[in-house]
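Before relying on records like the one below, remember that each one covers exactly one chain. Contacts with other chains, cofactors or solvent are not represented anywhere in the record.
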Amino acid sequence: MDQVASQATLSKIERVATAAPTTANIKSQFVNTNQRRQRFGTHLTLDGYGASVERLNDMHRVFAALNNVPDLLNMKKIITPYVVHYPGNGKKDRGGYSGMVMIAESHISIHTFPDARFVSIDVYTCQGSLEIGTAMKFFQREFGVKEWEKHVIKRGTKYPLSL
């Protein structure tokens, strides 16, 4: 009786073992290793030095820049830009204007620090390309930036082309 029961158990284990998926089979069920990928977006960060105090301290200029740059970069605004004055924290940040505009492709933000003649700008887009030179020239003209620190970050580098 024990031998028959053991034989039946062994037979059941063999069936399960041969039907059990291998690591490669499991991976192929959940991960398409042949799937084409693209980056999700491009995030341009610009830090501008030596900018015009007057231009950085002009709320209307910050608003106009946020209102006009999406069209220049072939992006679609989905809200009117929003700009606020911040008086500063009495330490490193002595105040300025901060503004942003949401675009269908993501967002654009500007933070001015007139006393330091500094502007910090983010342009994040999930569209296929970003005209970095065009953006830099536009912001240089708007704020009189003398020197740029630029970073281009590729976002979502494993984002699938198709789901």
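The chain has one domain: 37-157.
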